[in-house]
Amino acid sequence: MEATRRRQHPGAAGGPGAQLGASFLQARHGSVSADEAARTAPFHLDLWFYFTLQNWVLDFGRPIAMLIERSPRTLPRSITYVSIIIFIMGASIHLVGDSVNHRLLFSGYQHHLSVRENPIIKNLKPETLIDSFELLYYYDEYLGHCMWYIPFFLILFMYFSGCFTASKAESLMPGPALLLVAPSGLYYWYLVTEGQIFILFIFTFFAMLALVLHQKRKRLFLDSNGLFLFSSFSLTLLLVALWVAWLWNDPVLRKKYPGVIYVPEPWAFYTLHVSSRH
Length: 278
Hints:
Structural class: mainly alpha
């Protein structure tokens, strides 16, 4: 009964951050039962609107906790708490590193060059200072991002796993959802390219696709919330593909991002092709 009242009165849990936080604790692990599938959730316009808005405005401290309030699955609280703790630690590391990085930009730091190749870094004395900046870069771009984004996409996937319905008629997105797909997909594009997490993103996307195909054999279909999230990820994949194709032959960015996975950062493009002209 309490869960039913929460679905009927989504605003009762408090603001968007509190909603997304309390929601995570309501997710249930396991296959979707017939009773659960029959209770199709409406499209959560308030959740997705505030989620997209806060993603764009704040970038840091995304309201992930709000995500699973209305998903019909429940996870052990230990997994919930560990995921959120790791997420906060990773976001904190990234925030510190990013703050220093943005200060360096004002001093002439160029994102399209490596740390040692940057004009304001390579002449530092003593040279051991360069090692310190490389360590900062590692904490920000590798350790911080891994601790930040792995729990983030895990939580999104767990939410997505509960977004199925037995009624094909309910597998439609309302108008407001369609309007939010573009800014949501664009934000995830920025997250994937600037965060350099394409492998994590594509793994999550194919896991979602595999789950959709698996549930389809059980005659279960994505509800409006699942369609919204899957459509956002599909748009993100398209935008990343177009971004990579556009910059495929850029020699400077190719040197900055060697290897098989070539996904340039927007800030590297900005410092190379935009700010250098002014």
